[in-house]
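Per your request, structure below.
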């Protein structure tokens, strides 16, 4: 009997993490550990002890308190950074210069002017060193199922999204107001999802309900010349993260996704299109809350997409250039909500 060689697998992608804080250790690192062909090689933190602790927990070989030592193509193939917007921009600029791919948590920059400079640098980046902005919601398996179910039933005409959390209750990331912190943290997610599906709006309107000194409910409406509409409700007045989106197609088919876990589809009687639902029937998909959490919430999917861009030299599916559209809508929302820092006492 002839002997055969075992196929040699491609070496794993070596990742370096900058910023092993709560978000990285609760979401990004567990998702990374389940990604085929990925290995955490190094960890950087402001305190060497924190870097050492995270490296030991997640089995990285190297750690440092100097992130520039980590962001080196001789050390890692790609960087993941989860910190503050201003620091994100510094890391992205460094990685683009060094030719290292970088997954940067949103928001990737503290303001539009800084992001515009990064977009210009991104345009000249070599293939295989992409920048990926970490918007996880569009990569969730339940959200992808929603879009896949609706695609055969016409164009999405209505996009309604509720994204409400319990935080922030004080300014963070060096922002001066709770409103600005809320919009850069949660609002960017909501605007990104709408723009991915509907594109850049022709009109933006925004209003704020002041709940108390620390809590806000912000309603953002994105209008389109052809009659499409997105309504986004962003707030910090809940006791948990609430996530619900409702999409309506040109054939009247409505899809509602609630908390990543439940998807319902309906079609009004007599509406155009056939084969989905009749009468008052509802089609429901449910995902048990304990099954595939990082896939449902999109953390696994976004990292998998980033890794495909790295290994196959494909364009990023979440670029800085696309994020610039989010920031421009955000600027208009901030202008209309009068966020000059003078109205909020926290």
């Amino acid at each position: 009997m002839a002997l055969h060689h075992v196929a040699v697998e491609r070496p794993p992608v070596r990742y370096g993490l900058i910023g092993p804080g709560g978000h990285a250790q609760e979401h990004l690192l567990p998702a990374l550990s389940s990604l085929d062909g990925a290995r955490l090689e190094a960890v950087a933190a402001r305190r060497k002890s924190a870097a050492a602790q995270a490296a030991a927990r997640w089995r990285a070989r190297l750690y440092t308190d100097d992130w520039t030592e980590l962001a080196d193509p001789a050390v890692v193939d790609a960087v993941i950074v989860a910190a503050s917007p201003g620091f994100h921009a510094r890391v992205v600029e460094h990685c683009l210069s060094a030719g290292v791919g970088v997954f940067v948590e949103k928001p990737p920059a503290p303001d539009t002017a800084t992001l515009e400079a990064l977009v210009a640098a991104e345009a000249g980046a070599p293939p295989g060193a992409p920048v990926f902005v970490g918007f996880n919601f569009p990569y969730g398996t339940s959200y992808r199922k929603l879009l896949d179910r609706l695609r055969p039933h016409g164009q999405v005409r209505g996009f309604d999204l509720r994204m409400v959390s319990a935080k922030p209750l004080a300014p963070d990331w060096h922002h001066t107001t709770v409103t600005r912190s809320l919009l850069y943290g949660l609002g960017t997610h909501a605007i990104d999802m709408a723009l991915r599906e509907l594109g850049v709006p022709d009109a933006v309107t925004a209003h704020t309900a002041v709940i108390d000194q620390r809590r806000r409910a912000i309603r953002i409406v994105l209008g389109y010349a052809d009659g499409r509409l997105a309504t986004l409700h962003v707030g910090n007045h809940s006791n948990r993260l609430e996530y619900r989106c409702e999409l309506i197609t040109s054939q009247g088919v409505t899809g509602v996704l609630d908390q990543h876990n439940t998807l319902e589809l309906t079609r009004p009687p007599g509406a155009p299109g056939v084969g989905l639902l009749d009468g008052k029937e509802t089609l429901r998909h449910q995902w048990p809350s304990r099954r595939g959490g990082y896939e449902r919430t999109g953390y696994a999917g976004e990292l998998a997409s980033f890794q495909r861009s790295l290994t196959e030299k494909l364009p990023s599916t979440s670029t800085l250039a696309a994020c610039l559209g989010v920031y421009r809508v955000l600027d208009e929302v901030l202008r209309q909500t009068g966020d000059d820092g003078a109205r909020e006492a926290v």
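The chain has a mean pLDDT of 91.

Regards,
D.
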